[in-house]
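Friendly challenge for the regulars: who can give me the structure tokens for this chain first? No prize, just bragging rights.
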Amino acid sequence: MPFVVRDSSGQISEVHTAPNKRAHEELASQDPDLQRFLLEAGGHEVQDALGDSDLGLVRVLEDLIGVLIDKRIIALTDLPEAAQHKLARRYSLRSRLADLQGIVADSDEILLP
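First reply, four minutes later:
Bragging rights claimed.
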């Protein structure tokens, strides 16, 4: 739980991970005042960066699951049914995208069979 220091108007001015002489008020991490302070202190940039990294991490996890399946460490059927459907959908979409990319070369020339 974070410990905060408030200014004369009652607004949070500092946040610490442990209590000290100035920071003795403990708040829940979901406290609205604390959330507001964190957003104003650069939280929007952090949230945006986390959102961007989430997209990349999804691909990492997808690749990791694929490797585990290929090495027969897990089977697709070991995963919950909802996860199986999501992965199958992504595999299908990736396959379609690969097919489309095969139609157009890097130089944007149409490839003929």
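The helical segments are 32-70, 81-103. The chain has a mean pLDDT of 83. Your move, everyone else.
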